Recover the amino acids of this structure.
């Protein structure tokens, strides 16, 4: 009697309990959907904003490389040629295309349409081959960023909606577009240039090289130091207070905010050791400290995964401890260590805050030639461009992020490949 | 140190006759607080198989690992007393443990070939100790070692395949070949057949008997039949003490100690 | 460039000496009566170490002392009126001298004194490098000779080489300790200078933060005020919002992943979630500024709540998303570590899956989850780029999530990026903030790691 009453009670509650079960499950699914949805929105919005930056609006102009403008002295002296007034060449070509722009105000408006870097392109051409002076050349030259934004549809035509161009300017642009002289072409400046105040000329190459040098320094230091530390702790040291202290330190450093490493770098590397400010060398040193704990921890895990009987076998044959490590344990742990190192490097390449502290945040036009030259890094370039007010820099920031994410994706893919194909399961 | 050893050596008739390859005098081992071996005195004769038997946890493996100082690797392990190899103290500070292990090879309970080719497994020791002067030399050492381990015919066509791909019995013989390749004087075997099937066990036992000619062998075994089959002398350990040692035949037919008797007749173990 | 050449020459010398040492040992092995103690290559390494190591140590020592000696020499040779400058101005002058000397371009020199000093600096540096190179190379040659001469069959070359390697291993492992010491010392040193000028109590309990000190002493607000409480509350506000986003989403996804998801779903969703952790924070910052903040502002406008464009809400929201994978992967580990026997016990009593999770698994895993959350909090507090880009600069003491607040890390960045005045309280205060940040995150980490470790030991 009693047991059937209980069974009834259980049955009565069952529906509610199963409903709760379903709800709980739905919460979990919802949480994952929210997180992944955010990831999708983030990536989609950056791609949507950024993909247009890979092309740049250019104009085809027929340039008259008039010797009387470029080289009045006629001596073809290299110094003269490199300081010649190429802007005049470009402007003359524009005036030849639109002779109606005769008064000064109109001319200024016309010249405003083309990039201030256009004359540099002409100069490059002439310096490469001075014999072309005196001839006529067709050339694709970059338009100003505002025209670029208009063509890409990022800026409204009408002034009341934020457009920057007058009827007359719009008419010129339309005329160029109508006869096929105005086109968007692959944006070579983005991949070959250093930073610039002109968005249409601003490039990532300087930042990429800066990041490359920094990572080179980081890799050259953190890999040997990280592996050495892990090997010492796993294969040589006995557990005592001293090794406990080292271990606690490593675990804590792994969780210290990266900006604190930047402060350390500012104080120790710049103020005490007087290393060059803003240089990839110092950036690399700071990033070494940031990524070292990650590498040490990963290396220790892979060393631990090598079974102890490998060590016994080697020692039993008369190998010394170091021989045991270098002949057997390290090679077997290496795929795991490399995976950890790549992940550490991927963390380092995206690290921004500590680099701000050591001055890798300056406006630097030149591409660094050595790790001692002032430079920025890719994520810092993202930060710098994000802070620029021009609309054109928004798409370039997004493009820079896409480039950064491509590097990260490549590194992580390598890490996954290594893990899948070389890591041994015992 | 030397007076103790002399005193001990005088005690042991075999040793005095110069027959002992290895002697142990008052060997004690502590793991932290645990007293694992208590005052062991034992002489091991050259070119014989000495079997160490006893219930699990009796200290026989611990004693074996003292002979090539593998106990050094265990944290908190403390070894006192005197162990000599050819009258030389192996715990002497001046002695290089690496050289000791080149003279005293070891085969482990579980076959543990390196995850390398069969050839490289056997060649590792000679390379390590610079025993070969040329590639041809090395190849000869490898082939001879594999032959002596009775494995060559089975693997001669696949020397560059990984040693881990062999069967359990073959792996263990590979490990024996690897140990022989260094030409040690002594081979320590720590329950070498416990992971093998009966057929593989029989092969390894046969091999041990053949190896006796050139090596001094100390084998720890769990199986008394095995001890009876392969060894000339047997030492019985119990709770960290050496209870009895003697010719194998004598130990199995006429044990002097009640504990030994109990163990070999299967009353405990 | 010169330096690289020197290093390359040393490397080549060591390599050559290695071959010589190995060859000598091999010859001994063939002709000698005694067996070699070690393999011939160890004799090579031994000689190479003798050749390279002393030289490298000398170079390292030389380079770390050089700036100080050079500075002392140059300062000593300055004309008396320059020497009489106050310390801060003198250090500015010396900075200029170093920069002039480094660039070699004296056109932008501020004074003839600086030009002359820079000239001298250049000459001294060149001499110093020459001396260093000569001594280093001589050391390498002498060391190489010594190493070669000591080769004999009895030489324990392997043991010597291994001892050297072991010293390197030990030294590497102490780097972690030195890094911590370096952090503490550098933060403490500058902070003490700061607390010399601004009392600790004002810093810790003051309610007004406006570090813009005036250039001239007679200007209004010349002293600046350094009450850091608004920064602490701002950091706290943003972190709380971030945790409100990250903890439920992270925890629920971890539970779903660990308890419900089939392996196929897991193998797809888990890496995707971890992608969120791989995205650099500067990207999150840009996204917050570009998309989230305007979206929230417009949303606020349409429902009549004024939301600042640098609102704590937008910043905290994005930071929360960044932290989700952190919480989910830590909790996933912890939940998976709960032994199945506990689950089976609950199932055996007729509990549903969710009841088992809520009443058995989560309570059992709670210490580990809390440890993970503490680590996440420490990360939120120390996060820099998102807040630098998306949060405000001016300090407001408010708990309103729609208002703009600033954080400790934002202030550190804004105080130290750009031109710095040496020894001004403004610059120094960044280090004091850094010290607070370090201590707070350190405390959180220590507690969290302790809790997690205790938890792991329980079920391992």
């Amino acid at each position: 009697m009693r047991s059937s009453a209980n069974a009834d009670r259980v049955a009565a509650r069952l529906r509610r309990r199963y409903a709760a079960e379903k709800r709980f499950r739905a919460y979990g699914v919802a949480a994952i959907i929210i997180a992944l949805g955010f990831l999708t929105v983030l990536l989609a919005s950056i791609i949507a904003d950024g993909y247009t930056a890979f092309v740049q609006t250019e104009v085809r102009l027929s340039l008259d490389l008039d010797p009387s403008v470029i080289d009045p002295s006629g001596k073809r002296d290299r110094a003269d040629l490199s300081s010649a007034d190429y802007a005049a060449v470009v402007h003359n070509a524009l005036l030849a295309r639109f002779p109606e722009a005769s008064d000064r105000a109109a001319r200024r408006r016309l010249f405003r349409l083309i990039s201030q870097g256009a004359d540099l392109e002409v100069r490059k051409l002439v310096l490469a081959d001075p014999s072309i002076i005196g001839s006529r050349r067709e050339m694709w030259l970059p338009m100003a960023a505002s025209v670029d934004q208009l063509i890409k549809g990022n800026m409204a035509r009408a002034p009341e909606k934020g457009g920057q161009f007058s009827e007359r300017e719009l008419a010129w642009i339309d005329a160029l577009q109508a006869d096929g002289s105005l086109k968007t072409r692959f944006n070579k400046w983005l991949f070959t240039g250093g930073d610039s105040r002109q968005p249409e000329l601003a490039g990532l190459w300087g930042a990429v090289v800066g990041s490359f040098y920094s990572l080179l320094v980081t890799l050259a230091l953190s890999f040997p130091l990280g592996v050495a530390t892990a090997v010492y702790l796993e294969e040589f040291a006995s557990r005592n207070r001293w090794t406990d202290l080292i271990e606690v330190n490593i675990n804590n450093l792994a969780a210290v905010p990266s900006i604190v490493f930047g402060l350390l770098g500012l104080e120790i590397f710049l103020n005490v050791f007087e290393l060059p400010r803003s240089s990839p060398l110092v950036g690399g040193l700071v990033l070494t400290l940031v990524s070292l704990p990650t590498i040490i921890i990963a290396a220790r895990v892979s060393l631990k995964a090598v079974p102890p009987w490998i060590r016994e076998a080697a020692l039993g044959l008369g190998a010394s401890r170091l021989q045991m490590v270098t002949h057997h344990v390290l090679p077997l742990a290496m795929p795991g260590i490399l995976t950890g190192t790549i992940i550490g490097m991927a963390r380092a390449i995206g690290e921004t805050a500590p680099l701000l502290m050591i001055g890798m945040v300056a406006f630097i036009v030149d591409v660094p030639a050595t790790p001692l030259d002032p430079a920025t890094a890719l994520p810092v370039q993202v930060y710098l461009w994000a802070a620029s007010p021009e609309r054109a820099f928004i798409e370039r920031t997004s493009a820079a992020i896409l480039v950064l994410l491509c590097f990260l994706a490549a590194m992580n893919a390598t890490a996954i490949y290594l893990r899948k194909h070389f890591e041994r399961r015992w | 140190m030397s007076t103790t050893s002399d005193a001990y050596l005088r005690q042991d008739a075999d040793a005095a006759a110069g027959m002992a390859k290895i002697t142990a005098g008052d060997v004690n081992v502590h793991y932290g607080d645990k007293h694992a071996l208590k005052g062991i005195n034992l002489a091991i004769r050259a070119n014989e198989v000495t079997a160490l038997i006893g219930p699990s946890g009796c200290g026989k493996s611990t004693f074996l690992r003292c002979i090539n100082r593998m106990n050094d690797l265990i944290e908190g392990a403390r070894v006192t007393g005197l162990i000599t190899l050819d009258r030389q103290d192996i715990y002497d500070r001046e002695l290089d443990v690496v050289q000791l292990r080149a003279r005293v090879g070891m085969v482990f309970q579980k076959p543990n070939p390196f995850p390398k080719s069969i050839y490289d497994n056997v060649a590792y020791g000679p390379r390590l100790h610079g025993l070969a002067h040329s590639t041809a030399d090395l190849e000869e050492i490898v082939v001879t070692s594999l032959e002596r381990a009775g494995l060559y015919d089975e693997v001669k066509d696949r020397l560059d395949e990984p040693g881990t791909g062999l069967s359990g019995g073959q792996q263990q013989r590979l490990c024996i070949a690897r140990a022989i390749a260094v030409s040690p004087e002594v081979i320590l075997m720590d329950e070498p057949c416990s992971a093998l099937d009966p057929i593989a066990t029989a092969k390894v036992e046969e091999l041990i008997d053949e190896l006796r000619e050139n090596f001094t062998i100390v084998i720890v075994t769990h199986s008394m039949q095995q001890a009876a089959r392969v060894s000339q002398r047997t030492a019985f350990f119990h709770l960290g003490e050496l209870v009895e040692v003697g010719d194998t035949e004598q130990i199995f037919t006429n044990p002097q100690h009640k504990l030994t008797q109990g163990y070999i007749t299967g009353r405990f173990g | 460039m010169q330096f690289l050449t020197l290093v390359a020459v040393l490397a080549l010398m060591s390599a050559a000496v290695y071959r010589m040492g190995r060859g000598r040992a091999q010859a001994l092995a063939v002709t000698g009566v005694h067996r070699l103690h070690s393999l011939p290559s160890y004799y090579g390494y031994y000689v190479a170490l003798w050749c390279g190591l002393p030289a490298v140590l000398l170079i390292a020592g030389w380079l770390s002392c050089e700036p100080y000696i050079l500075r002392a020499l140059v300062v000593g040779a300055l004309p008396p009126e320059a020497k009489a400058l106050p310390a801060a101005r003198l250090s500015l002058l010396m900075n200029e001298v170093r920069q002039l000397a480094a660039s070699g371009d004296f056109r932008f020199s501020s004074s003839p004194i600086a030009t002359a000093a820079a000239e001298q600096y250049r000459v001294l540096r060149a001499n110093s490098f020459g001396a260093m190179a000569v001594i280093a190379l001589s050391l390498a040659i002498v060391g190489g000779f010594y190493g070669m001469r000591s080769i004999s069959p009895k030489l324990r070359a392997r043991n010597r080489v291994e001892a050297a390697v072991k010293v390197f291993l030990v030294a590497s492992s102490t780097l972690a300790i030195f890094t911590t010491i370096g952090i503490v010392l550098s933060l403490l040193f500058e902070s003490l200078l700061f607390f010399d000028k601004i009392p600790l109590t004002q810093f810790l309990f003051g309610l007004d933060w406006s570090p813009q000190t005036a250039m001239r002493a007679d200007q209004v607000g010349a002293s600046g005020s350094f009450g850091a409480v608004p920064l602490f509350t701002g950091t706290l506000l943003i972190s709380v919002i971030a945790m409100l986003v990250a903890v439920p989403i992270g925890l629920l996804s971890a539970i779903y992943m660990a308890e419900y998801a089939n392996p196929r779903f897991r193998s797809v969703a888990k890496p995707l979630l971890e992608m969120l952790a791989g995205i650099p924070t500067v990207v999150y910052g840009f996204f917050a500024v570009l998309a989230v903040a305007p979206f929230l502002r417009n949303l606020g406008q349409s429902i009549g709540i004024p939301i600042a464009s640098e609102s704590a809400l937008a910043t905290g929201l994005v930071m929360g998303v960044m932290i989700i994978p952190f919480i989910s992967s830590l909790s996933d580990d912890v939940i998976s570590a709960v032994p199945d026997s506990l689950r089976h016990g609950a199932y055996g009593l007729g509990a549903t899956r969710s009841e088992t999770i809520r009443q058995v698994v989560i309570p059992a895993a709670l210490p580990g989850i809390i440890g993970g959350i503490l680590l996440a909090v420490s990360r939120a507090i120390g996060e820099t780029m998102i807040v630098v880009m998306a949060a405000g600069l001016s300090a407001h003491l408010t708990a309103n999530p729609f208002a703009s607040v600033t954080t400790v890390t934002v202030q550190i960045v804004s105080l130290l990026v750009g031109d710095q005045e040496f020894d001004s309280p403004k610059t120094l205060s960044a280090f004091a903030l850094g010290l607070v940040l370090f201590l707070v995150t350190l405390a959180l980490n220590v507690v969290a790691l302790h809790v997690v470790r205790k938890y792991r030991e329980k079920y391992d």
